[in-house]
Amino acid sequence: xxxxxxxxxxxxxxxxxxxxxxxxxxxxxxxxxxxxxxGGGLWKFELYxxxxxxxxxxxxxxxxxxxxxxLNDNIRHIRCYGWNSIYKxxxxxxxSRFS
Length: 99
Known about the structure:
Layout (H helix, E strand, L loop, with lengths): L2 E8 L2 E9 L19 E10 L2 E16 L6 E8 H16 L1
């Protein structure tokens, strides 16, 4: 199952580790590598099938991806900055440098 596995703080940043499992999954859906997604958003959402089509509900921005681990035992992790890092730490650093 692909999910948030761990959340922790390092200095002023909150970090999120997303577990990507390649066991029992359709390899056509999960990419072999997440190279190139650095700077891409981490989103939480609910997916429903309505009248034969998929519908996204209750989406929420959680963070920004910046690193992928190697594949180990059919699992890799995507490391992300959490929303607190983005909205508080980064914002405050930008304001202090340009004020």
